[in-house]
Write a structure and sequence with these properties.
Oligomer: single chain
Radius of gyration: 19 Å
Helix content: over 70%
Number of helices: 9
Structural class: mainly alpha
Number of strands: 0
Distance between the termini: 22 Å
Shape: globular
Number of domains: 1
Strand content: under 5%
Order of helices and strands: HHHHHHHHH
Largest sheet: none
């Protein structure tokens, strides 16, 4: 039996690791504030309890997957983990700073940006080494549109179904899903371009280690 291929590990830039850890700590602190002082956190009637349950689970999904399945064959995917954590952290921070109510376009920006970040994380974690742009775009849209739909369903049942904004929810939902799909497309373009240029070697080491194992020794 051939020996198990060795894992190629790269050192992730310190700034990415620091931002990831800081975002996780900030998320937990903001969630605690939202639960204990919902008015101070601008989270009253905005599903603070549901967010407090789902956001920690989502932000620790990448570490759990890596530990259970990949820790023996790849470095920790810090960049993908940061992207997932940032989506949760910025949503809570936006509410804390009252940006959703004070800036008209902020909600649209969050749907575009956060769906794009989640899509980028998914692509980084699953992208085959030889994926074409078409395959990357297909994967991004499949995940991004599904994520946007799941968010809209959760948003509706969490608070819009009994909220004064429910009369315009249909138009808002279509717009949010369109922005989410656009974010997924942008994520596909950027990730594919960066991967082709070799810029993800230190930020998505699980891809690079897979590439090194598959390349013939020369």
């Amino acid at each position: 039996m051939p020996p198990e291929p060795s894992v190629v590990r790269h050192e992730t830039p310190q700034v990415i690791r620091t931002l990831d850890v800081a975002a996780k700590i900030g998320l937990l602190l903001l969630l605690a504030l939202a639960l204990t002082h919902p008015d101070l956190g601008n989270m009253r009637d905005k599903a603070a309890g549901l967010r407090a349950m789902t956001y920690p689970l989502l932000s620790f999904t990448v570490p759990v997957i890596w530990f259970l399945f990949w820790r023996h064959r790849s470095s920790f995917p810090w960049l993908a983990d940061l992207f997932v954590t940032i989506t949760c952290f910025t949503d809570i921070l936006g509410n804390r700073m009252d940006l959703y109510d004070s800036i008209v376009w902020f909600d649209d920006w969050m749907h575009f940006m956060n769906t794009g970040l989640l899509t980028a994380a998914f692509v980084l974690m699953t992208l085959p080494r030889t994926a074409t742009f078409g395959a990357t775009l297909e994967r991004s849209l499949a995940f991004g549109v599904t994520a946007a739909l799941a968010w809209e369903i959760a948003e509706y049942y969490a608070f819009l179904s009994s909220h004064s904004e429910r009369t315009g929810a249909y138009r808002d939902t279509l717009g949010d899903m369109g922005l989410g799909a656009l974010g997924a497309v942008v994520a596909a373009v950027l990730i594919h371009a960066m991967w082709q240029r070799g810029h993800l070697r230190h930020t998505a080491p699980q891809l690079e280690s897979r590439r090194r194992r598959l390349e013939p020794a020369g």
